[in-house]
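It would be a great kindness if you could assist me with a short task in structural biology. Thank you for your consideration; the sequence and its tokens are set out here.
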Amino acid sequence: MLKHISSICLALTLLVPALLQAEKNSPLKPVLSKTGEATAVDTFDKLKLSKQWAAAKGEWKIEDGVLTGKELPADKHAAVLTWKLPHRNSIIRCSFQLKDADFFHLSLNHPKGHLFRVILDESGMTLRTDKNKKDPKSKPITLAQAKGTLEPDKWYTLQLEMQGDKVVAQLDNGLHVEGQHPSLDVDKTGYRFIMKGNTLLLDDVTAWKLE
């Protein structure tokens, strides 16, 4: 009997990490609201990006059904790509692989400037408001942090929810951050994908608008 119980405990011990194993395009349960039909989906199965995408910095191209981002030294700036989907309350989910990127940011702007971002690197995830460049006294505010190892050659699924002044971000490996700030309850201009380094992989990008 004891041997049988020990076997069950060992099986459960091995199962829990497996349930939290990161994967490409993992389904993640929303926290703030339910989702209906997706507003937009891009799986990068065509040769070129659609007109919904606009590259401001860096090199962004589709290779083997995956979007690859690279920083260009001549830009003297991180690579920036915008998914032009204006919204106020929404959910966005995407798959990413850090490869040899220093970091990956999913960033949101409002019509007059930067708003907030989710910062991802090999040490975990941070939720942070952005500095208002028009206000010299403005400073970024870290709303939440989750420490954990993100392996460079593994796919992870990120889901970001925005409703009113609340934001929740989660990864399929169990990392989770959430925060609340009055500045967040505004119209957003779209979704900005930012990376620094040589290679970032993106895929399976889906967005939902919320009421």
Notes: Residues 1-19 have pLDDT under 50 and may be disordered. The first helix runs from residue 2 to 19.
